[in-house]
Specification:
This protein has 621 residues and is α+β, with helices and mostly antiparallel strands. Helix content is 17%, strand content 33%. It has an 18-stranded antiparallel beta barrel. Strand 9 (379-388) and strand 10 (394-404) form a beta hairpin. The protein is elongated and about 140 Å long.
Amino acid sequence: MKKVILLASIVALLALAAGAASADPTRDVPLRHWAYDACQKLVDAGVIIGYPDDTFKGDRAMTRYEFAAAIARFMDKVQAQKGDKGDPGPAGPQGPAGPAGPAGPAGAQGPAGPQGPKGEDAKLDPAEVEAIVKRLTEEFKNELAELRKDVDDIRDRVDDHEDRIAFLEELTAGPDITGWLDYRIGMAGNSFVRNSEFDNLTAKIGIEGDITEDLYGNITIKYTSDPMRVAEGRGLVRRAAFPTTWRGSPNPPAVNSSYPTQPSWYSYPGMPSGFLANSLESVWIDEAWVSWDWKGWTWTLGRQFQAYGPGLLVNNERMAQQGIRTQKEDLGGYLDIDAFVGMANYDGWTPYSAHATDTMDGNDAYASIRVEYDNSRNWSIAGNYLGSGLGCESGWSVDLWAKFWGNRDLYVEYSQLERIFDDSQHRCFGGVTGPGCGLRDKNPDALMVDIDLYDGKSWYLKGYYANVDTGGVPHFSSGNPYDEIYTLQESLLFRPANQGAIFPWERWLRNPLIIDNTVVYGAHLGFEVVGDPVELIYYSVDNKTGATQCDIRFPDMNYDQLWALRWTHNFVRGVTGVFTYAHQEAVHNNYAKYNGLCDYDTSLWKTPDQELFLAELVVNF
């Protein structure tokens, strides 16, 4: 059947000129045409009959109908010649065997046979190899030339980049210059009226970087336009310079309540010679230290800052100390060590007590150490010891950090002082005695807890708690942070008449609130408004049960509810604006509450609320 179909196809291709009946349709086919014999054969067989005009018309395309008629005649001829099927003949002899089929799947591998003898080393004919290389080189000489050119271009580019990188590294290898400008302006007081305005500019600039291949260093200088305000916040005022009859009193003589617009209170009749001489510094060295590694320990020498954990026992952000610090990580595989020995230069300042001796002026030895276990990303625990703090201070603390419920943080520190700074029987301020005075704990302790209550994508909530005995806050600790006072009311030394002592604004707006002889509850709520961070701050402050008014570091505890709203906006990269409104709610009828103990002023029966509006512009560089 396949042969019939093939033959029909050939006939169809040769019958392109088939047409109507004719006796000799090939008469118009040239005798020398290459298809003449084929055409004549098809005519003789009756497959092609030609056109009525006895022509073949071989150069004309045939129609589908003409093609069908020619095939039909061809099939009739084939069928007429096909006879009836006869009986099968006898079987012929067996033909030769066909080629072998494909190999079947391989069987399991048999055991390895014995190793054969080592063959001879291959021998290469150097002349033959050279000839092959020459032929290949000659054949691909154009391609090799292009490749060599590309390689040269790449090498030139690499060399150029290496030169540029070396130049940039040389430029950046020097010390980094860092710092900021901080300008603050606002109003503070019991009402926003005349003389409640304030402004101050503080600047910090530092140089930090490699001094040599093994030595790293830092020096930082700070400037303020209002040195008295900053000196008071840093604790550099010589309080002991006042006569005993003035110390602890709400009103030193000749205080001008119109500060800061009328700074006549910088001096007044009877002020001791040299008072504040070392305090009113507009420019001072904030840090100056060098650091290096030796024997697996990091050593830092000079004027420096340090803090242990939350800082309830050790945190000298109020004023840097001079000395040497050593640190070691992963001692024994799981312990971190941090220790400091040096001096704290108070610039002639004596803190808070009439009983502090003159020997505390000037230099005072300081020593502390911290051992931390941190073998997990989820928690750590540390023990801290203060061997010698301000004056006679000594004590210890334990702090814990842990992550819980995903990415929330918990910070806890408990501290206890073995001795306070003057090693006295905890007398009252100004040497005043009275009911309940001198009854403070011999070993005052303090507890501080900071916890993430919720930490989401669009808002967070932090909780805070502090419980401090009288005298339980060391001088260099988070309980005595660096803060810049805005009004006279914030100062224990320079309070206007008939005004109670308020909590210094920065003491709780920029730092956790830790106050002697108080229990503090707080919360920070953060969220975003049109992409800017907003924070709501709240603190509730209570005197501890059984405590007397004269026992607390802020003797006139006039305010017990503190709250603030802060909005931060980035104007451009490196320029940030901070806008704050804050409020201190007064405890009314204070005199009745404290029963007139110690030197409390009966004029403070009705203490006004205090307010603050602060606009701050910070430029970082």
